[in-house]
Design a protein that fits this description.
By secondary structure, the chain is mostly helical. It is built from 14 helices and 4 strands. The strands form 2 sheets. The protein has a two-stranded antiparallel ribbon with strand order 1-2. A two-stranded antiparallel ribbon has the order 3-4. The longest helix has 27 residues. The radius of gyration is 21 Å and the shape is globular. The two termini are about 30 Å apart.
């Protein structure tokens, strides 16, 4: 084979490996940790690993839409914490109607609906700030991070709402099922992750909304001139992000049987990391939900494997940070090579 042909073949292989870097990294991590720790591939460890991954993956699916549009959402962790507190408040204290002198306790699934609506509402505020008032996404969502975290503290005065199992006499039992329930042998959070990943993929690839998100992230000005209703689409992606954040807050509260205002701290960083590792460009316009799912598994496997190997939490943070930086470098390399 001539040297020029070998060079082209090597370049194609290198490009393919860069495009599939998240999957390659995931396979490499599984192989390495399986060889170093006999506990890694046990059913018990894999079950715990996937449940942890599900939480980050759900959050990252919403974040993917925001980043695809060219934005960022730093408030998802705080919104998760606030929505968990909303659920905890309604389950523990109900809604007191002062004028009638009565307290109403809602059914657990109505509590879930209220908390999800709260998350979507906060996402809508983010979207309005970014799309209507043209506040930079970083600033708008950073402000929402502090607002949501503060509200979460105010709901209970900084205390925890315990015993979210509900009271049969109040008709509000069943809330823990969203975090600890088992359906067809799999935990509910894993089903929720799978459903959201499938729905997110269809929404991103098969609908006009998804194509408009990619168009805005690729070139917002061109999308606007092409007739895309940019403000509405941007509002939509932040609402999706608020929904997934609220769902994560509810899952964690249900798993713990309690809600705490500090829930979700730094979750936004893990969600962004999963999106970036999955190949979504931080500049917008390029990426997939499947890639995000793989990115979430890379982070989950990395964290789980390092714990099994006895690596200290401090070194775990260092290693995770280096992996994220490497992912961004490879993304920039891919962008230059395809331009």
């Amino acid at each position: 084979m001539p040297s020029s042909s070998r060079a082209r073949a090597a370049r194609r292989v290198a490009d393919l490996l860069i495009r599939l870097r998240a999957l390659v990294a995931l396979i490499a991590l599984v192989v390495v940790f399986s060889a170093l720790s006999p506990e890694f591939l046990t059913s018990g460890n894999l079950s715990i690993l996937v449940k942890h991954v599900a939480i980050n993956a759900i959050l990252a699916i919403g974040m993917t839409f925001v980043i695809l549009s060219g934005g960022i959402d730093l408030s998802v962790g705080a919104i998760a914490g606030l929505c968990g507190m909303v659920a905890g408040y309604l389950l523990n204290r109900g809604l007191t109607i002062e004028t009638a002198g009565v307290t109403v306790y809602f059914h657990a699934w109505l509590v879930v609906a209220v908390a999800l609506a709260a998350g979507m509402g906060l996402g809508a505020v983010n979207g309005a700030l970014v799309a209507r008032l043209r506040v930079a996404p970083f600033i708008a969502t950073l402000g929402m991070l502090y607002v949501a975290r503060g509200l979460a503290m105010l709901v209970s005065g900084g205390a925890t709402f315990p015993s979210l199992g509900g009271v049969a006499a109040f008709g509000n039992t069943g809330f823990p099922l969203i975090g600890t329930g088992i359906v067809a042998g799999l935990p509910v959070p894993i089903w929720l992750m799978a459903i959201l990943a499938a729905a997110g993929t269809v929404l991103a690839v098969r609908t006009p909304f998804g194509r408009q998100v990619y168009a805005i992230g690729g070139n917002e000005r061109a999308a606007l001139l092409a007739g895309v209703r940019v403000p509405q689409v941007k509002l939509g992606v932040y609402v999706i992000s608020g929904f997934t954040a609220a769902l994560v807050g509810l899952i964690i509260a249900a798993q713990l049987g309690a809600s705490h205002p500090a829930t979700g701290e730094t979750f936004e960083l893990n969600a962004i990391a999963a999106v970036v590792l999955g190949g979504t460009s931080l500049m917008g316009g390029r990426g997939t939900i499947t890639g995000t799912l793989i990115g979430a598994f890379v982070i989950g496997v990395l964290a789980d494997g390092l714990v099994l190997l006895g690596v200290s939490e401090f070194w775990q943070m260092v290693i995770k940070g280096l992996v994220i930086v490497l992912a961004v470098i490879l993304d920039q390399f891919q962008k230059r090579s395809t331009s």
